[in-house]
């Protein structure tokens, strides 16, 4: 009897509805088994499947390898002139951690939801967030996305933009008619 073929997928989900947990590649067999690959690991938007409370330091390293041509030199015609200031400037580890704090907390909450309720709950939550984040904005009106704040758990937080307002970079107080013409490209 031939050994079952292990699928190349890194991780898949069980086909039975009662067992909605992640299974490792060693458990996924092709053939007579009841387990079939349904989705890959990138289901929850490439998030780390750990319970990491504090984000890692993750130093940013700028290199020319991303913009190099076949000779190993920076391709100026395709990527524009090199920005040496961006390559040299390094930020502190504390700043990197503060920038990634909300993302790490959100990943931890989604992973806990996945483990307690099942994979459908984080999927539903991410889908709802995506739907409400692309809401239409009427020019001349204050932009607020209370729906996204509720889904992200920020509805009870009072932050600086909530009571001081946001900075309008578009150029001051123009009439609503001009803003609508600009939005509708008239």
From TrEMBL:
InterPro entries registered for this protein in UniProt: Ump1
One GO term (biological process): proteasome assembly
Pfam annotation, one family: UMP1
Record carries keyword Ribosomal protein: no
Keyword list, A-Z: Chaperone
Domain of life: Eukaryota
GO cellular component entries: cytoplasm; nucleus
The family this protein is said to belong to: Belongs to the POMP/UMP1 family.
Protein name: Proteasome maturation factor UMP1
Species of the source: Dentipellis fragilis
